[in-house]
């Protein structure tokens, strides 16, 4: 690949992948295109520059901004309004224009340049009500799937690609699923080579965590900077569960997919940490306390937000069987790396996070 375009390339995932790709492919032209909408993405610009990644201030809502890149061979589509809460408290205009119309512009750019596409989709494509309707048992620190459920796509390994897709999933999830459908049609009609990774929670240093997106960093930062946090929803106990994946482990998968793109093209994979890398908020609090040496006031609100889910753990069987990939970074190490990064950049990050 001579030229690789990373849209959202100053964001958490985009900048991380762009830097790792450039390090592995020093002779490639790696371009990060980003409109810097996400607060803190600007902090990645010096890192990109130092590594030889080209930065282009651009917006995927504007086709001319994508044209300005020139020809490219591969696009990693990492730009988004990435919050599942987007649109709840006002207009969904930006969400739809970026996550849906923007995808269309990205697909058109790929078609024109005969470029391949890796699309960062989300576990949020799965509707929330059927997930809430699963049966859970409550242990001392978390909700766990009750045994013996006869629901397609659900097993002790987590939630697989065969989980039903009908029902509301948040507008964020809907824009991602709609984008996936467009990708399928571009593959069929124009021969676009594309891989879709439906990612669960991704985390790591340089994520600008906030209340509605990036909870691992939010938790670690609020512990380190001695601020408050609260357990929201599902009884306010902090027992809701997610699996988490270090962005570096996502890059390992990307390398395997790119090394054999024709085999993975047209595939949709659930990607995440899986059961071994799952944790509840209560368990995350314990890890954050350990890594920072701080205990902070913890509030609680029993009321569950619309669209929220008590549990999501990725069944990674399909992607593991197809690529041989598995994540390498444990939960404590992930939190430790985030805390180290927060400590090293505390003065700047306190203003942003
Ligand atoms: N972080 C996660 O836990 C997670 C999980 C599942 C899927 N994803 C997906 O991964 C991708 C990257 O997410 P992230 O966590 O890095 O988010 P992020 O907010 O850190 O990065 C997104 C970047 O896109 C940029 N952007 C927003 N609108 C744009 C536009 N119209 N034109 C150009 N750039 C624009 C932002 O400025 C930001 O730098 C997204 O597609 C997200 O939906 C992330």
Protein architecture, described:
The chain is an alpha/beta fold. It has a domain at 1-126 and 169-199: Rossmann fold. It has 13 helices and 17 strands. The strands form 5 sheets. The chain has a 7-stranded parallel β-sheet, with helices on both faces. Strands 11, 13, 15 and 17 form a 4-stranded mixed β-sheet that branches. It has a two-stranded antiparallel sheet with strand order 6-7. Helix 1 packs across helix 8 and helix 4 packs parallel to helix 6 (171-190). Bound molecules: nicotinamide-adenine-dinucleotide. Nicotinamide-adenine-dinucleotide binds at residues 7-8, 10-14, 34-38, 41, 59-61, 78-80, 82, 98, 102, 120, 122, 199, 201-202. Residues 7-8, 10-14, 34-38, 41, 59-61, 78-80, 82, 98, 102, 120, 122, 199, 201-202 line the site of nicotinamide-adenine-dinucleotide.
Distinctive features:
alpha/beta; 4-stranded mixed sheet; 353 residues; 17 strands; 7-stranded parallel sheet; Rossmann fold; binds nicotinamide-adenine-dinucleotide
Quick structural summary:
39% of the residues lie in helices and 19% in strands.
Architecture blueprint of SSEs:
Elements: E1 3-7, H1 12-24, E2 29-34, H2 45-51, E3 54-57, H3 63-67, E4 74-77, H4 93-113, E5 116-122, H5 128-132, E6 136-138, E7 143-145, E8 154-155, E9 158-159, H6 171-190, E10 194-199, E11 201-203, H7 215-224, E12 229-232, E13 241-246, H8 247-259, H9 261-264, E14 268-271, E15 278-280, H10 281-292, E16 298-301, E17 311-312, H11 317-323, H12 331-344, H13 346-352
Parallel strand pairs: 1-2, 1-4, 2-3, 4-5, 5-10, 10-14, 11-13, 12-16, 13-17
Antiparallel strand pairs: 6-7, 8-9, 13-15
């Amino acid at each position: 690949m001579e030229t690789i375009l990373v849209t959202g390339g100053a964001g958490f995932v985009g900048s991380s992948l762009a830097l790792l790709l450039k390090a592995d492919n020093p002779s490639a032209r790696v371009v990060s295109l980003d409109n810097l909408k996400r607060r803190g993405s600007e902090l990645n610009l010096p890192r990109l520059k130092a590594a030889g990644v080209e930065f282009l201030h651009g917006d995927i809502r504007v086709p001319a901004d994508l044209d300005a890149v020139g020809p490219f061979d591969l696009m990693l589509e990492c730009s988004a309004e990435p919050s599942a809460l987007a649109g709840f408290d006002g207009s969904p205009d930006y969400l739809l224009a970026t996550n849906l119309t923007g995808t269309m512009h990205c697909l058109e750019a790929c078609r024109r340049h005969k470029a391949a596409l890796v699309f960062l989709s989300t576990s949020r494509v799965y509707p929330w009500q059927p997930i809430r309707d699963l049966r859970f048992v409550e242990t001392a620190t978390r909700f766990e799937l009750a045994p013996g459920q006869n629901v397609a796509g659900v097993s002790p390994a987590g939630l697989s690609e065969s989980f039903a897709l009908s029902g509301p999933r948040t507008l964020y999830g809907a824009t991602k699923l709609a984008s996936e459908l467009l990708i399928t049609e571009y593959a069929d009609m124009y021969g676009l080579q594309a891989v879709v990774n439906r990612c669960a929670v991704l985390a790591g240093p340089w994520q600008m965590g906030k209340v509605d997106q990036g909870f691992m960093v939010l938790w670690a930062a609020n512990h380190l900077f001695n601020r408050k946090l609260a357990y929201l929803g599902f009884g306010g106990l902090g027992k809701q569960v997610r699996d988490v994946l270090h962005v570096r482990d996502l890059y390992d998968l990307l390398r395997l997919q790119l090394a054999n793109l024709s085999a993975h093209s047209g595939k949709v994979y659930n990607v995440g940490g899986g059961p071994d890398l799952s944790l509840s908020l209560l368990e995350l609090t314990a890890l954050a306390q350990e890594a920072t040496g701080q205990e902070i006031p913890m509030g609680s609100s029993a009321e569950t937000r619309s669209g929220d889910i008590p549990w999501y753990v990725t069944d990674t069987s399909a992607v593991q069987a197809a690529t041989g990939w598995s994540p390498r970074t444990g939960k404590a190490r992930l939190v430790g790396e985030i805390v180290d990064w927060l400590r090293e950049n505390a003065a700047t990050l306190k203003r942003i996070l």
